Each structure stands twice: as structure tokens, then as C-alpha cells.
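Hi V.,

You were right to ask for the full record rather than a summary. Here it is.
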Amino acid sequence: QLELVQSGGGSVQTGGSLRLACVASEETNYVGWFHQAPGKDREGVAALNTRAGTTYYDKSVEGRFTISQDKAKNTVYLQMTSLKAQDTGIYYCAAVPGGLVILRRLDPTQYRFWGQGTQVTVSS
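Predicted structure:
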């Protein structure tokens, strides 16, 4: 069974940067990062087709967040810059196993396997 282990996160001031990492136990086809603000539903912010290298971003983070991977380490990163207070929340990575295709890459319902989540707090 595919397992995901997250690291990174923490507290930062507005305008600061953080990097999250997600290590997968086996081959994936897609890895997504999802943000859950306090009291709100989980929303997709970035996704990566790990085979093709294609990236997908929500408009709210485009130009500020970058999703990337280190294939040798089976790790996907989310580099977050120019952080805003509204970026505060729990961030989850999720993955689709190798060989499976999804159409809505930022839709959390498309993903079955999830990391444990990590807190990001942005304060002024």
C-alpha cells in the first residue's frame, strides 16, 4: 500500500518562505498538495504528474508556490514563497499510484492515499 510521509512546515512571517516535502513509499503517477484552512474544506493548491513532469496550480498560489520532485528520492516538494496569512492551515500531500490516471488533478476526491499533514502558520 502506498504510504506518504511529510516533513517541513512551521511558522513564518508574512512574505516568508517554507518548503514541504512528501516521500512516497512506491511509484506514483500524480502527487498533489492540499491546503485546509481552519474551519474550511481541503483544497488543492498544486499537483504534479510525476511521470511527465506536468504541473498544475490553483490561481491563489500561482507564481508563489512551486511543486517539484526528486525522482531518485521518490520525493515531491512544495516550495512556498511570498506567504500570506490566508496560506495558514494544514497542508497534506496525496498521491495516485503509478498506472492510474486522474482528470481533476486539484480535486482532493481524486486521491486515495494521503500524508499525515503538516501545520503552516503565517503571521504578520
